[in-house]
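Example 3.2
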Amino acid sequence: MAKIGILLTEGPWQTENYEIFARLAEAALDKGHEVEGFWYLDAVYNAVKHQKFPEDVPLPVERMKKLIEKGAKIIACGICVNARGLEGGKEFIEGVPAGGLPDFADMISESDALVTL
């Protein structure tokens, strides 16, 4: 099976890119592919575990938890995390470590396909 890398640069509710990320990753995992995501810029907000929204809508963080449970590997850019005051990802869901551009470079070199959102 293939390894698919996905770069996500936007946070929740800015656009629907987090949902596209989730649907693409889920479909790939269901077909037996490996999925690795790198969250850059505001995408690091997708990992904050205390998300709230006034309406009864699925929260992005809940979608990401399910992907991790299915085997997706997700890394958040550590510089982006700290620049946004997220203290190294202390408030992130389990399974989303802060990393760096070397992790992204590894993802690119090891992936059979790279999608950017």
